[in-house]
């Protein structure tokens, strides 16, 4: 975050804060003109306009609260807060203080997700039927959150941005294979209404790393593979059609299959945080509505909270 904000001409990096002295010294050496401190109070005494918060989620609320109370806008790493109540309190505090909250939903600022937004908006896929996502790898175990809170915010924020609204219900199943008892493998079923569902497979225990989402439409299907550096987005002219005539007098549904070409649109390279920094500057000037605000962050936290409740209830659907 420090590198992207320091490289943006709309911002001037004035301070760095880290309670890890060795890390602070290392990063501070890269930006000698900025204050390097282990004290948040000392950082806030420099009266920054905006503070970027990249710490474990358990500390998001209190640090963001102090920053907003000191008159700062904030950019908070995902997930926004550890609970829905914390998120609601921060939004209320920011509203009273006339401060802005931005959330680091990184993927929304990538060329790949912007391409998917364009494809869905153009109608090329037709009606979206379902989404299947796999986000698995070996590690990294987090000390304060489970695999759902660690990995699902990426998928939830992408889907919320592309679909235009959060899911209506969430069902979650998961298991733990570690001494701490933290859920490290999970499956989420999301119902977005009007027949649209999404399925998320999340794991810290996979021997291979996979970052793939499939969007199945009535006209075309689209696959997003974040690990494919050359063809992140692939569009498949594949589908099925059902003969619905005279269904009452037939014992079988007639299905026709279509298999056409695959094409991979060119994705312009860009660094997500650099794009978000530019957008934040534009939003603070009042020239646009940010695509990852505190409201968006809270919506994702609500879906995560629903997933946690479903997990405790044996996978029962929970309203978001």
What is the element layout, followed by pairings?
Elements: H1 2-7, E1 15-17, H2 21-28, E2 35-37, H3 40-44, E3 50-53, H4 60-69, E4 73-77, H5 84-97, E5 101-104, H6 111-122, E6 128-138, H7 147-163, E7 169-175, E8 185-193, E9 196-203, E10 205-217, E11 221-225, E12 233-243, E13 254-263, H8 272-284, H9 294-312, E14 318-319
Parallel strand pairs: 1-2, 3-4, 4-5, 6-9
Antiparallel strand pairs: 6-10, 7-8, 7-14, 8-9, 10-11, 11-12, 12-13
Helix pairs in contact: 4-5, 5-9, 7-9
Structure overview:
The chain has 320 residues and is of the alpha/beta class. It folds into 2 domains: 2-106 and 274-299, NAD(P)-binding Rossmann-like Domain (Rossmann fold), CATH 3.40.50; 107-268, Dihydrodipicolinate Reductase, domain 2 (2-Layer Sandwich), CATH 3.30.360. The protein has 9 helices and 14 strands. A 9-stranded mixed sheet has the order 13-12-11-10-6-9-8-7-14. It has a 3-stranded parallel sheet with strand order 3-4-5, sandwiched between helices. A two-stranded parallel ribbon has the order 1-2. Helix 4 links the parallel strand 3 and strand 4. The longest helix is centred in the last third of the chain and has 19 residues, at 294-312.
């Amino acid at each position: 975050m420090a590198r992207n904000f320091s490289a943006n001409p709309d911002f001037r990096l004035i301070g760095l804060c880290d309670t890890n002295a060795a890390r602070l010294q290392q990063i501070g050496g890269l930006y000698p003109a900025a204050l390097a401190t282990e004290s948040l109070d000392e950082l806030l005494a420099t009266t920054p306009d905006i503070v970027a918060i990249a710490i474990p989620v358990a500390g998001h609320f209190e640090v963001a609260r102090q920053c907003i109370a000191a008159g700062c806008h904030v950019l908070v790493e995902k997930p926004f807060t550890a609970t829905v109540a914390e998120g609601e309190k921060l939004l209320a505090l920011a509203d009273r203080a006339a401060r802005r909250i931005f959330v680091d939903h990184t993927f929304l600022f990538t060329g790949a997700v912007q391409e998917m937004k364009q494809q869905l908006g153009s109608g090329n896929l037709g009606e979206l039927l379902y989404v299947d996502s796999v986000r698995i790898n070996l590690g990294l175990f987090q000390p304060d959150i489970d695999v759902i809170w660690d990995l699902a915010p990426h998928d939830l924020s992408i889907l919320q941005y592309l679909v235009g609204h959060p899911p209506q219900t969430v069902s979650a199943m998961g298991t733990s294979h570690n001494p701490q008892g933290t859920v490290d493998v999970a499956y989420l079923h999301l119902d977005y209404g009007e027949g649209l569902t999404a399925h998320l497979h999340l794991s810290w225990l996979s021997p291979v790393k996979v970052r793939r989402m499939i969007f199945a439409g009535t006209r075309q299907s689209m696959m997003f593979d974040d690990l494919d550096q050359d063809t992140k987005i692939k569009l498949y002219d594949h589908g099925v059609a059902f003969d619905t005539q005279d269904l009452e007098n037939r014992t079988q549904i007639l299905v026709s299959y279509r298999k056409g070409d695959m094409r991979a649109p060119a994705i312009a390279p860009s660094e997500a945080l650099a794009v978000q920094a530019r957008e934040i500057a534009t939003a603070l000037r009042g020239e646009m509505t940010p695509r990852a605000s505190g409201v968006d962050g809270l919506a994702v936290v609500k879906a995560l909270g629903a997933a946690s409740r479903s997990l405790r209830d044996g996978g029962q659907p929970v309203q978001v």
